[in-house]
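User: Predict the structure for this protein chain, please.
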Amino acid sequence: MRINTDEDFVGIVNHPWSCTFEVLGYKSGGFSFIPHGFFRNWLDEEMSSDDASFHIGRCSGFGVGSIAKYDGAAQSLRVGRFVSGGLRLKFLLNGQHDMRTISTTIFSINRGSLRNIPPPQYGDSIIKNDVWMGDEMMMLGGGIIENGCVIGARTLLPPNFKSEPYGVYAGNPARLIRFRFSRAIIEALLSLAWWEMPLSWVAANNDAFLLDLTVDEGRSLEIIAELKRRV
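Assistant: Here is the predicted structure, written as structure tokens:
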């Protein structure tokens, strides 16, 4: 499996959680966590091919028992920074059978001389920055989870799902429940794009990350504006 990450990646590091995760370390600080056995093929075997692609940003990780199922090199899973995932998440990147022909069967598996058209393929699955996914969420291929979203436990994201930034989604299939913040605060946070800052910047401004932005919109916008001046 070809794992790509941020440029200041220093390697797989020893960590108290290394018995459960591959722990990626970064020069600027912070870790990303990939549970053992995360990359699977359609036989539920661990992926060994370097053709398949995965990107994860710093300070992101998925819970124990999570998997990403690949059919091969046709699609990838791309994960941004500060993404948090619960237990037993499933990213089913493909696994389609063509429904437009007489049969959905892949005949070549049953007899080598038989033919079938290539299975259809989803596009890449993309999870942007500052996303939280609850336990046992399932994401089918080709979707995009935008910045700041929350996905409820056991939510099913259908193929080619597209969210809105800072939306809270739940259900089967997923539906928008509400937004985390007002439209003005969402626009200010997207403009700030704090996840692009080094971890040292987050540390220097840590107090601002402890505030409830839903209490006073005016004051919250002032705080975000001040943070942007410090970029």
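The longest strand covers residues 21-26.
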